[in-house]
């Protein structure tokens, strides 16, 4: 039965050029309460797309709606319901996780008691409770990533955008993060995640989108992608390689970044 | 066979370091941009030619009457050599500390079978040579003019500069090694930075303080008054003036100073080289100290987004040890005006005319550094940019944080000044705040995302912003002094300030609206 609530993310004809088109007329929809995995070779345009959604990059054309809010005409309202977690954890070395979360709660104008409760719960979920009063400067990359993730979740966003969130995490930490993310989806939160760990997308995502050369070349559930790729019973890795042509760095068959994303540019 | 391998490693490291040094220089001379190196070199050549003209204007009156190596000349030359030494020592301490702590390629080199001792030797030689080349670039117009006007014996100045570079680099290594031994790897970096700041400024400031106490003048050149020297300084034949004899080309003095410097440098370089691996391993093991705060059970404070940003900026600034050394450097320069204020208390109500420009300059520079840290040195730019706040709120919170700090530092100084001259205090406070606001504006216009740890390179990353910041501070300082003196000429620096800010605004880089 179709949901009456607006889509968590609605991207329409999005374009961005860095000399060459990095995102080329891309449209996709993420439903409310859905875990959506965005896959693609390096330089395919995944990060550029998500940075435009998060308001970190201006689009050349197209539109983005976050939970029904036009992210380009009313960015502040859109940011209230959105959280962005980049691949490189960005936390302040001189702040403790608790101070960091207090700062983030202030940015989102959260009620202090609720913020404190959420902070304690999140730090506990990520196994950081015993480090909550230590400065982040001495933390490993995995711990910093978990602090950043806690910061993204503290204001209870309705749409969470994660760019390679499991990079640098050990097996235990990755499991903690996956558990938290699964719990959020169960509560109705929508998640868009890019990852190169195809097994994670295979196991966690409700739907998978594959980007190559700045365009969405395939989308659907794992079964739908299997059917499309005529790869019965094969893993997502086989399907992915079949769809993108086994190439890497940008797109099918070229073997180079024809459509560099922002980082490459 | 082993000697051959060692020789080969040394050669490889030398080539590697030379290539890196050349690319760094080429990049620096092209203004850290992809502009033509040839165009940058032409610009530098023109600047170098102008420096020769200035040197000629300064030195020709002395040489016209036939320069005498009397007590005054000996004192001036020796003090210049000593001053160069303190500056180079300060630079050397920074460089040596960086060689031990900067990760860069050390993981690769230490894990390779190549002898790391050789790497340190090559790097330390490069440090001394770079220091020599840089100082020679600054001093060479004067030395060249002296050679043309006074004779070839002034070429010895280059040898003295090389000797000073070698001694300063050797001393830098020895001091850093001593710091590792006494305060440990965890604290050496910060201690070395603070010491370098003090060493770099102490000699100049010391001379200024002596000049104030002896003559009531803030100019350190008053110390070279012949009558004062005759009574207070060693006589012309004293060994204290040995460096002056070397600069003037006396063969024995040149040989002695050069030989002693080479020996001193070799000792420092060797001691550093044999301990290099051990110290680097210690330094690389140093992570951010785990500072455990109180187990906090308190509720979060109720912040508005604006309040949260200001609180965060102030917390980060107060917890930044690098900033402590930089602030200390600025505060050190405020010592002479403070002494001047103390000496003149109750006697000279026009004292603000003398000290106001110093305070305004120091505050302008400090504000520039703080503004860079808060505006460009944002370590979590994505978090701030995705927060539901406007760009104006973000920037205004950062600006207000800097202005609050500057006002806090400035207020006690202005209050002390008010005890002598209320008008002077008001003008100085206003001038300093305008200088701070101008520096902040420049930093806003030229903002570019960077990590706080790259603070050291901020002044070289954008020559335009550095020049604009300096121009604005100088204009504010001159304007403040002239207004304090009640001169109508104060309009000129005010107009200059507006021109500087206008040009800066017009050439500011285009910013992505999201940053």
Features:
heterodimer, A: about 260 residues, alpha/beta, Rossmann fold, 6-stranded mixed beta sheet, 4-stranded antiparallel beta sheet, about 35% helix, globular, B: about 525 residues, mainly alpha, 20 helices, membrane (chain B), transmembrane helix (chain B), transmembrane (chain B), ABC-2 type transport system permease protein (chain B), ATP binding (chain A)
Gap from first CA to last CA of chain B: 58 Å
Query: Which fold name fills CATH's third level, the topology of chain A?
Result: Rossmann fold
Contiguous low-pLDDT stretches of chain B (5 residues minimum) are none
The best one-word shape of chain A is globular
Count the strands of chain B? 0
N-to-C SSE string of chain B, H for helix and E for strand:
HHHHHHHHHHHHHHHHHHHH
User: How does the overall form of chain B come out from the CA principal axes?
Assistant: globular
CATH level-two architecture of chain A: 3-Layer(aba) Sandwich
Number of structurally distinct domains of chain B: 2
Q: Approximately how much beta-strand content do the residues of chain B carry?
A: under 5%
Largest interface (C-beta under 8 Å): A-B, 45 and 41 residues
Main beta sheet strand tally, sense and closure of chain A: 6 strands, mixed
């Amino acid at each position: 039965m179709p949901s009456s609530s607006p889509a968590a993310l609605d991207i329409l004809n999005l374009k961005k050029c860095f000399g060459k088109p990095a995102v080329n007329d891309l449209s996709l929809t993420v439903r409310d309460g859905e875990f959506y995995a965005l896959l693609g070779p390096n330089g395919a345009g995944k990060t550029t797309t998500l940075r435009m959604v998060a308001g970190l990059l201006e689009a050349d054309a197209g539109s983005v709606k976050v939970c029904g809010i036009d992210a380009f005409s009313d960015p502040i309202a859109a940011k209230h319901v959105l959280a962005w977690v980049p691949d490189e954890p960005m936390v302040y070395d001189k702040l403790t996780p608790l101070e960091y979360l207090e700062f983030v709660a202030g940015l989102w104008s959260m009620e202090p008691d609720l913020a404190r409760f959420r902070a304690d719960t999140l730090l506990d979920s990520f196994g950081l409770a015993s480090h909550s009063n230590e400065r982040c400067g001495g933390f490993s990359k995995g711990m910093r990533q978990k602090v950043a993730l806690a910061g993204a979740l503290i204001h209870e966003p309705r749409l969470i955008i994660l760019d390679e969130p499991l990079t640098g995490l050990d097996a235990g930490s990755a499991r903690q993060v996956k558990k938290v993310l699964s719990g959020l989806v169960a509560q109705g939160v929508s998640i868009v995640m890019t990852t190169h760990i195809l097994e994670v997308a295979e196991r966690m995502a409700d739907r998978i989108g594959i980007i190559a050369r700045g365009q969405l070349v395939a989308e659907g559930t794992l079964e739908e992608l299997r059917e499309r790729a005529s790869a019965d019973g094969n893993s997502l890795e086989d399907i992915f390689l079949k769809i993108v042509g086994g190439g890497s760095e940008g797109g099918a068959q070229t073997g180079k970044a024809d459509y560099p994303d922002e980082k490459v540019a | 066979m082993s000697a051959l391998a060692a020789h080969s490693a040394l050669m490889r490291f030398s080539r590697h370091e030379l290539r890196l040094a050349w690319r760094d220089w080429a990049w620096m001379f092209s203004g850290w941009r992809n502009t033509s190196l040839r165009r940058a070199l032409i610009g530098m050549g023109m600047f170098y030619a102008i420096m020769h003209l200035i040197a000629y204007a300064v030195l020709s009156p002395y040489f016209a009457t036939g320069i005498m190596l009397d007590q005054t000349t000996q004192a001036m030359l020796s003090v210049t050599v000593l001053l160069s030494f303190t500056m180079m020592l300060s630079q050397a301490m920074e460089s040596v500390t960086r060689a031990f702590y900067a990760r860069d390629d050390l993981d690769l080199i230490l894990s390779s079978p190549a002898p790391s001792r050789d790497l340190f030797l090559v790097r330390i030689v490069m440090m001394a040579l770079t220091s020599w080349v840089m100082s020679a670039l600054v001093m060479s117009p004067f030395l060249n003019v002296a050679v043309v006007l006074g004779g070839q014996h002034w070429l010895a100045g280059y040898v003295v500069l090389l000797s000073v570079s070698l001694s300063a680099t050797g001393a830098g290594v020895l001091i850093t090694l001593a710091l590792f031994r006494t305060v440990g790897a965890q604290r050496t970096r910060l201690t070395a930075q603070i010491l370098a700041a003090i060493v770099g400024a102490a000699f100049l400031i010391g001379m200024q303080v002596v000049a104030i106490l002896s003559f009531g003048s803030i100019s350190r050149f008053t110390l070279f008054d012949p009558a004062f020297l005759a009574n207070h300084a060693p006589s012309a034949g004293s060994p204290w003036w040995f460096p002056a004899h070397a600069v003037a080309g006396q063969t024995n003095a040149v040989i002695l100073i050069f030989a002693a410097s080479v020996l001193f440098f070799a000792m420092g370089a060797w001691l550093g080289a044999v301990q290099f691996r051990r110290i680097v391993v210690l330094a690389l093991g140093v992570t951010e100290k785990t500072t455990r705060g109180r187990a906090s059970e308190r509720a979060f404070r109720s912040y508005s987004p604006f309040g949260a940003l200001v609180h965060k900026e102030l917390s980060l600034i107060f917890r930044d040890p690098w900033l402590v050394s930089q602030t200390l450097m600025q505060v050190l320069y405020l010592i002479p005006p403070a002494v001047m204020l103390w000496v003149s208390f109750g006697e000279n109500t026009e004292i603000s005319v003398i000290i106001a420009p110093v305070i305004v300059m120091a505050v302008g520079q400090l504000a520039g550094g703080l503004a860079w840290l808060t505006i460009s040195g944002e370590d979590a730019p994505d978090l701030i940019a995705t927060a539901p706040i406007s760009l104006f709120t973000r920037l205004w919170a950062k600006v207000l944080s800097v202005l609050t700090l500057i006002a806090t530092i400035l207020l006690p100084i202005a209050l002390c000044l008010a005890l002598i001259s209320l008008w002077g205090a008001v003008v100085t406070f206003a001038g300093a705040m305008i200088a701070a606001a101008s520096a902040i504006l420049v930093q806003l216009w030229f903002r570019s995302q960077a990590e706080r740890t790259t603070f050291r390179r901020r002044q070289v990353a954008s020559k335009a912003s550095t020049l604009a910041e300096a121009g604005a501070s100088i204009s504010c300082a001159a304007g403040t002094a002239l207004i304090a003196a009640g001169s109508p000429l104060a309009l000129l620096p005010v107009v200059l300030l507006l021109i500087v800010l206008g040009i800066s605004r017009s050439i500011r880089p285009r910013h992505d609206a999201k940053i």
